[in-house]
From TrEMBL:
Keywords: Cell outer membrane, Ion transport, Membrane, Porin, Signal, Transmembrane, Transmembrane beta strand, Transport. InterPro entries: Bact_OuterMem_StrucFunc, Beta-barrel_OMP, OMP/PagP_B-barrel, OMP_bac, OmpA-like, OmpA-like_sf. The keyword Ion transport applies. This is Membrane protein.
C-alpha cells in the first residue's frame, strides 16, 4: 500500500512539469554541499541524527535542474547505543524552480530516485560472534520543497525540506514487518558554479537610419527638422529656424569724449551686445568705421577716427570675433557727420558725430 501511495505522489509531482521559457539561464556545472538533520522513521529503532551531502549538477533549462548527490548519516540505535548503525546513499534529484523576474529567492519542488545502503550491528548474545552485522540496501525515492537564492556573486544558498522513502525492509533492529521506512530531511546548502559563465557577444547594432536632425539639404547650417525655410539662399543671414533674418547692429551709442579714442563704460556695454550678435550669426561680416566731429583739421580728424575704429576692432577681436569677419578698421575722419554743426568751437562739438559704427556687409 505504501509503495502505491509513493508512486502516485511521484507521478503527481511530475505532472507539474511545463515547457521552459525561451530565456537566458546559467548552464554551468555546479557543485553542492549541504548539512542538515535526519528525522528517522520511528519503525527503524534509531534516533534522529545529523547528515551531510555533496553533489554535482547543472540547470537543464531556465526552470529545471538535475543533481547527482551522495549522502551520509550515522544515527544511534534506541535499544543499544554501543552498536553501530550507519547509512549512506546516492540519488538523482530533479528540481522544478519557480523563478520570477526581480525576485532573488525562488521556491522549487524536488523529486528524486536513488539507492540507500545500511550497515547495522545487532545483538546475538550469547553467540560468541556477537554483535552480528547486516549490510544491505534498496531503492529510495524522495519528494520535497525548498527555496534558493543568491548569497554573493559566486554562490547560491538553498534551504530544503524533503521526505525520503527507503525501500529496505530488512531492518533487524526495528520493526521488521514493513516494506519501507520514511525519513524527513531538513537541510541548508550551497551551490557553487564551476568556471566562468559564457557571455554571448551582442548582435551588431543596425546601421542608423539618417533622421532629419542629421540632414541639412539647403546647406544653411540648420538641420531639416528645425528648418522652417528650406531652400534659403547662400549668403543670407540665417536664424535658428533656418529663415533669413534682417540683422541690424546699432552702435549709435558707441561715442567718444572730445578728442579721445578711449572706450567709455557705456560704449563697452553696447559693444558687448554687438559681440553676442556676431557670435549668434557666424556668417555675418561687418565694416568697423570710425568718425569725428567737425572740430580740428581734416588730417588730425582722420588719424583720430582711425584710432577710434581701432579701439572697437581690438575689443571685438579680444572677445572672440575672428578678424576675417571684419573689414577695417577704417577711419572716415569728419567726412560723414550725422548732424550738421558749425566748423568752429564750441558749436562743432557734436557727440553724435564722434562715433564708431559696424556696417553690415552683403
Amino acid at each position: 500500500m505504501k509503495i502505491r501511495l509513493l508512486s502516485t505522489a511521484l507521478l503527481a509531482g511530475l505532472a507539474f512539469s511545463q515547457a521552459a521559457a525561451a530565456q537566458d539561464y546559467d548552464d554551468r556545472w555546479y557543485i553542492t554541499g549541504a548539512t542538515g538533520f535526519n528525522i528517522q522513521d520511528n519503525d527503524r529503532g534509531t534516533r534522529n541524527a545529523p547528515f551531510v551531502a555533496a553533489g554535482l549538477g547543472r540547470f537543464l533549462s531556465p526552470n529545471w535542474s538535475l543533481d547527482g548527490e551522495l549522502n551520509y548519516q550515522n544515527p544511534n540505535l534506541d535499544a543499544n547505543q554501543n552498536l553501530n548503525w550507519s547509512q549512506y546513499g546516492i540519488s538523482l534529484d530533479l528540481r522544478r524552480h519557480f523563478i520570477q523576474e526581480g525576485r532573488n529567492w525562488n521556491p522549487y519542488m524536488l523529486m528524486g530516485m536513488g539507492y540507500q545502503r545500511a550497515e547495522e550491528e545487532y545483538d546475538v548474545f550469547p553467540n560468541p560472534n556477537s554483535p552480528g552485522e547486516r549490510e544491505d540496501g534498496g531503492l529510495a525515492a524522495k519528494l520535497g520543497l525548498g527555496v534558493m537564492g543568491d548569497v554573493g556573486s559566486r554562490a547560491k544558498m538553498r534551504a530544503e525540506l524533503a521526505y525520503r522513502a527507503d525501500f529496505d525492509g530488512q531492518n533487524v533492529n526495528g520493526d521488521t514487518d514493513t516494506d519501507w521506512f520514511g525519513d524527513v530531511l531538513a537541510s541548508v546548502g550551497v551551490v557553487i558554479p564551476l568556471g566562468e559563465r559564457a557571455v554571448e557577444a551582442p548582435a551588431p547594432a543596425p546601421a542608423p537610419v539618417p533622421s532629419c536632425a542629421d540632414l541639412d539639404d539647403d546647406g544653411d547650417g540648420v538641420n531639416n527638422c528645425d528648418d522652417k525655410c528650406p531652400g534659403s539662399q547662400a549668403g543670407q543671414t540665417i536664424g535658428p529656424d533656418g529663415c533669413p533674418v534682417p540683422v541690424t547692429i546699432d552702435l549709435k551709442g558707441v561715442n567718444f569724449d572730445f578728442d579721445k579714442s578711449t572706450l567709455r563704460p557705456d560704449a563697452v556695454a553696447i559693444l558687448s551686445e554687438a559681440t553676442e550678435i556676431l557670435k549668434r550669426y557666424p556668417e555675418l561680416r561687418v565694416e568697423v568705421a570710425g568718425h569725428t566731429d567737425l572740430c580740428g583739421s581734416d588730417a588730425y580728424n582722420q588719424k583720430l577716427s582711425e584710432r577710434r575704429a581701432t579701439a572697437v576692432y581690438d575689443y571685438l577681436t579680444s572677445n572672440g570675433i575672428d578678424a576675417s569677419r571684419m573689414v577695417g578698421p577704417i577711419g572716415y575722419g569728419e567726412s560723414r557727420p550725422l548732424e550738421a554743426t558749425a566748423q568752429t568751437s564750441p558749436g562743432c562739438r557734436s557727440e553724435v558725430n564722434r562715433r564708431t559704427e559696424l556696417n553690415v556687409q552683403n
